[in-house]
Amino acid sequence: MDEVIVVEIIKESPANWRFILQYKTPEPIRFIPGQLIQLAVEDIPCDLVTRNFSVASWPDGTNKLEIIVTNIVGGRMSNYLFNKCKVGDVVAIGAPVGGFILPTPLERDVVFVCTGSGISPFRSMINYVTINKVSTKQIYMVFGCRTQEDILYRAEMEALERINPNFHYIPVLSREEWDGANGYVHQQYLDIIKDMENKPLFYLCGWSGMIDDVRTNLTKLGYQLRHDIRIELFG
């Protein structure tokens, strides 16, 4: 594993904080948007705690990367990061790994469905394809939250939607009435696909209950795991 320095902590929402990690060597980090890293910290002396986190940033030629962490009650890693970790601390991370990535070339419409910190890999993907002008068909992001306070990267996603004509951003609130979509993510993606000629490729990341429900709904419509549905539990 590599030692990295916590160079910034951004309190994106009460329950979700952004951690910017910088390698000690200056070489750019090489990874594919959608991949994850394993983070390791010493919670108490000689007691190593490890967890996997999707990388929320994208390859940008720097030696920094970003993760976003949800504060889980009783969780040892989130307790460490929210209550003990500070800027300047050194933690260890493994090399980026995983196959939760977009195909090349990207020849199908794509629907991202996420909740909470599950937005992480999709933030990486959509920034990368937009900044690098990667050819895509339509990309939809359905992001489920409880309230507006919980919407992560809202201004950034709205800006990406304005500059990328193929990107459609749909935040959905379950516990607050507002001018946007209300309820849960399911009605939104079902509305998106009902008039599509060809099946889009679904990417799911977030709470296991949400993912199970999406899989059930899509399976009934003839979607197949791996061919049509890709899954990453949590962000």
Structural overview:
The chain is of the alpha/beta class and 235 residues long. The protein has two domains: 2-93, Elongation Factor Tu (Ef-tu), domain 3, CATH 2.40.30.10; 110-233, 3-Layer(aba) Sandwich (Rossmann fold), CATH 3.40.50. It contains five helices and twelve strands. It has helices at residues 76-83, 120-131, 154-163, 185-193, 208-220, and strands spanning 2-13, 16-23, 36-44, 47-54, 64-70, 90-93, 110-115, 139-145, 167-173, 181-182, 201-206, 229-233. It has a six-stranded antiparallel β-sheet with strand order 4-3-6-1-2-5, with helices on one face. Strands 10-9-8-7-11-12 form a six-stranded parallel β-sheet, sandwiched between helices. The longest helix is centred in the last third of the chain and has 13 residues, at 208-220. It starts with a strand and ends with a strand.
Annotation keywords:
single chain; 235 residues; alpha/beta; Elongation Factor Tu (Ef-tu), domain 3; Rossmann fold; 2 domains; six-stranded antiparallel sheet; six-stranded parallel sheet; 5 helices; 12 strands; 22% helix
How are the strands ordered across the major sheet?
4-3-6-1-2-5
CATH topology of the largest domain: Rossmann fold
Q: Please report which band the strand proportion falls in: under 5%, 5-15%, 15-25%, 25-35%, 35-45% or over 45%.
A: 25-35%
Report the strand count: 12
Query: For this structure, what is the CATH class of the largest domain?
Result: Alpha Beta
Secondary structural class: alpha/beta
* CATH architecture annotation of the largest domain: 3-Layer(aba) Sandwich
Low-confidence stretches: none
Order of helices and strands: EEEEEHEEHEHEEHEHE
Terminal CA distance: 20 Å
- Major β-sheet, in short? 6 strands, antiparallel
How many individual helices?
Answer: 5
Cα gyration radius (Å): 18 Å
In CATH terms, the superfamily of the largest domain is: Nucleotide-binding domain of ferredoxin-NADP reductase (FNR) module
Q: Kindly give the count of domains.
A: 2
**Shape verdict:** globular
Mean pLDDT: 94
